């Protein structure tokens, strides 16, 4: 079990904009994963996928979406996440999103560098 928290901030003001909290679960004895995430705008998702040890990569895709009754459109329909360890100190996360108005397309790309 891995606890997950992500907060994005406005690039100019630093004001928090989007928050996600969840858990990454591993199906014991397999490379299968489940990522359960709740978003601050009234959306919860379950994403499932696998870990490829050779590529040092996790790929996840939405299997379930739930939202509050008053969530604003356009509504998110699904996500795809790709998480790659590019080097021992560099992690890349790419998030693809499909909404009522847009086909599945790259929504966010982040590269994290470990500070020593």
From TrEMBL:
<dbReference type="InterPro" id="IPR014878">
    <property type="entry name" value="THAP4-like_heme-bd"/>
</dbReference>
<dbReference type="InterPro" id="IPR012674">
    <property type="entry name" value="Calycin"/>
</dbReference>
<protein>
    <recommendedName>
        <fullName>THAP4-like heme-binding domain-containing protein</fullName>
    </recommendedName>
</protein>
<dbReference type="Pfam" id="PF08768">
    <property type="entry name" value="THAP4_heme-bd"/>
</dbReference>
<dbReference type="InterPro" id="IPR045165">
    <property type="entry name" value="Nitrobindin"/>
</dbReference>
<feature type="domain" description="THAP4-like heme-binding">
    <location>
        <begin position="1"/>
        <end position="114"/>
    </location>
</feature>
